[in-house]
Amino acid sequence: MFKVKYFEYIRTSAVIVIALAIAFLIISLVSNQPVKTIGIFLFEPLSSKGHIGNVIEMAIPLMFTGLAVSLLFRANMFNLGAEGIFYFSGVVTSVLAIHLTLDGWLHPIVAIAAGSIVGALLSAIPGILKAKWNANELVTSLMFNNILFGVGLYLLNYHLRDAKAFANVSYKFEKTALLSKMVPGTRIHTGLLIVIVLIIAAHLFLYKTKWGYELRMTGINRNFARYSGMKTAKVIILVHLIAGFIAGMGGSVEVLGMYNRFQWTSLPGYGLDGALVAMLAKNNPISVIGAALFLAYIRIGADMMARLSDVPSEMISIIQAIIILLISAEQFLKFWKNRMLLKEAKEA
Hints:
Elements: H1 7-30, H2 34-43, H3 49-74, H4 82-99, H5 106-133, H6 137-160, H7 191-208, H8 210-220, H9 222-227, H10 232-258, H11 270-280, H12 287-308, H13 315-328, H14 334-347
Pfam family, one: BPD_transp_2
Membrane topology: Multi-pass membrane protein
InterPro entries: ABC_transp_permease
């Protein structure tokens, strides 16, 4: 028998199944070979080591931003600033990767640390605005995304751009700055180890420390937490600092792990995708791993489907939209939860 404590996991699984079922129905209507197309979508990402590597490579930045956003959401801060921080920290890291000369093991550490610190400081600004003046964090974070993108693009165009390249890209990074690859035949890099360590640390912080408890209580009821003696303003600023640090590290790791020069001429989208990962993970740091891998898996599957069949990759947008709609619908399956609560109450 299912218990109430497992309800959110069951609800999330049901959302995913419904979204995939609707997607398969649409595929069967638009494809000339629906069975083959669905097979490509489901199984092609596992068909070779290279494709599996693609899933993990895409999941790494999603884990970083998903973890950052999940901590903000846990504090009831609807902040989407991870997008701009991810981008701008990549720019900062690129500057050091191009112009700094250090030993191989030290160069990426310094570059990533710089991007992470910049991310934390930038994230603190909407945090301070929220804590001190109750400014809406969604509005301020979205505005900061545009500001950081504009400044980053300016730096790329006028200070980092390689005039000899036939594209709007930076000079090449020093080889000592690049992260090493972990699995031959793939582009899986050491950023995977970094993000897993961060996820474990975030889990311990959230559930095993006084600061994590205060963060969770502030998210549940800020007024109650404040009346209980918790300094909620400091909690809000702290969670923004931590989330910005993680998102900044994600942008830095992605740049040094996947590229040899900076080449983002638009926001990469990983910050906003992090919100979807956090929603799938129910703001649980450990669950971010599975949520990021799932999202990366269906995206690689959609890409392979677009290449090998007659269905475009935009199908993934339908799946994501359905997932967001159903997960954000508080009343979805709530009747079943109430029934479970009554049944457990009678048994007690």
